[in-house]
Amino acid sequence: MNVLETDRLILRHLNGDDAEFIFELVNDPSFIRFIGDKGVRTLDDARNYILKGPVASYEKFGFGLFATELKDGNVSIGMCGILKRETLPHADIGFAFLPRYWKQGYAFEAAAAVMKYAREDLGMDQVLAITTPDNEASGKLLEKIGLRFDRLIELSEDAPAAKLFTSEGKSETKIGK
Fold first, then answer.
1. pTM for this one?
2. Is domain 2-125 given the CATH code 3.40.630.30 in the classification?
3. Each residue of 29-53: pLDDT tens digit?
């Protein structure tokens, strides 16, 4: 199901047919470095990741991560969307793209469309984002779509520090320590 469309992209619900693409994306070294190892080792793991992650999110919240495709050729290049994590009080924007599609404006185009969707269609007045402290490119993109760095947080006792970005000024949000 298509959710959003931009000049060059279609953002749609992920489904089991996306297993090969998800397998490639989540096993890319940059994904593992900046987002984490999702333990996807087979195409069945990729299908389970889709079903237990994005598809479950669509059913529970009405939103989630969307496949991001080029309109020209319907080639999947990444994913972008809104997540609701138990460890954060508000939904957050997330994105990941295959490296061969970096530095072409696709991530910005998708993230800007998702931010507008979160505000206008989902009625969210506060949107968060998290990145690893060394992910400067994602931080710059988040600032470009209107989020601002708030502070370093720990999402759990054993988690490394993450940069928290908010869609409004200083957050009153209580997160982690």
1. 0.91
2. yes
3. 999 999 999 999 999 999 999 999 9
